[in-house]
Amino acid sequence: MTHVSRPGRLVLLGHPVSHSLSPLLHGAALASAGLDIEYEAIDVAPARLEHEIRALVADGAAGNATIPHKEALAGLCDRLTPTAGLAEAVNVWWVEDGELVGDNTDVAGFHALARRVLGCPPGCERVALIGAGGAAAAVLTAVGDWPESRVRVFNRDPARARRLCARYPDVARAETVIEEALAGATMVVNATPIGLLDEGFPVAVERIPERAAVIDLVYRQGDTPFVRAARERGHRAGDGLAMLVEQAALSFQRWFGREPNRQAMWAAVT
Ligand code: NAP
pLDDT for 99-146, tens place per residue? Predict the structure, then answer.
């Protein structure tokens, strides 16, 4: 029988810009469950990650990881879930039978976001994916489970797109011209930070096929400029907030073995 140590501390390892909403989400889930545990976000230099995670494990902690640590943490875990192994990235970690275990709930988070935007379970999708970093890998891992679905990946650095697609040969193909990625797309996904701190678009909305759903992994208060512009043109569209909430809810489930109050989590960030 496995023994998951109930964490005495919850820690997000990351970068200040990317983790601003997580303490709010987890604070709401913990308060609603009556758990007197603090969720703290700490900045860790990449060179200190291994030292820091060992110290946290010894201290009875569990937690999340975000940019820029998700890939490096996967290499430090004693065990990865199959999903984290496929994505080669860890966004949630805990201690089980004395071992550091890493999972990737961004994948299920993206699935929940796609389902929400489409209004039904995804299937037979032709996805145009812009970006080829860690978030793009989570998208490809999720789409790999969708029936009859394929992805064309466009990235600023084409070699990175080719490397990513080589990990998902049954699902993904790299394109060097964005029009090729967009041709026939039923879903367009932004997996770059464009629109996070600026008013930029990953692609002009006029170039998106008429009936395609538009998903922006970026989130910010009042929708991203890309999502607003896509909706104005009549596309079904949604930003990354639903993905963020779901990956956090599933993190809570990994740590405590029960469902969090998702309503309270949504209320904390909307
Ligand atoms: P990452 O690993 O650093 O990858 C960033 C990707 O964006 C790379 O493909 C990079 O292209 C591309 N890029 C960066 N700046 C660009 C620009 N100005 N123009 C064109 N392409 C650009 O980051 P990540 O972990 O994949 O995260 C990407 C974004 O997804 C984050 O900013 C975050 O907002 C969002 N995200 C959201 C959630 C959620 O829960 N909603 C979860 C994870 C990530 P190059 O390879 O050419 O550098």
Answer: 999 999 999 999 999 999 999 999 999 999 999 999 999 999 999 999
Is residue 187 in contact with ligand 1, taking CB distance under 6 Å? Answer: no
The b-or-e profile of 32-57 (16+ CB within 10 A means b, else e) is: beebebebebeebeeeebeebbeebb
How much is the average pLDDT of 178-192?
98
Could you give all domains of the chain from N- to C-terminal order, each with its CATH number?
A: 10-105+244-269 (3.40.50.10860), 107-242 (3.40.50.720)
217 in contact with ligand 1, CB cutoff 6 A: yes
72 lines ligand 1 (CB under 6 A): no
Known active-site residue 70: yes
pTM value is 0.95
From the candidates 26, 69, 70, 111, give the one annotated as an active-site residue: 70
Backbone angles phi, psi at 137, to 5 degrees: -65, -40
Buried b (16+ CB within 10 A) or exposed e, 231-259: eeeebbbbbbbbbbbbbbbbbbebbbeee
CA of 37 to the centre of ligand 1 (A): 31
Preceding amide of 147 cis, omega within 30 = no
Distance 236 CA to ligand 1 centre (A): 22
End-to-end CA distance of the chain: 40
What DSSP string runs through 62-123?
Answer: EEEE-TTSHHHHHHH-SEE-HHHHHHT--SEEEEETTEEEEE--HHHHHHHHHHHHHTS---
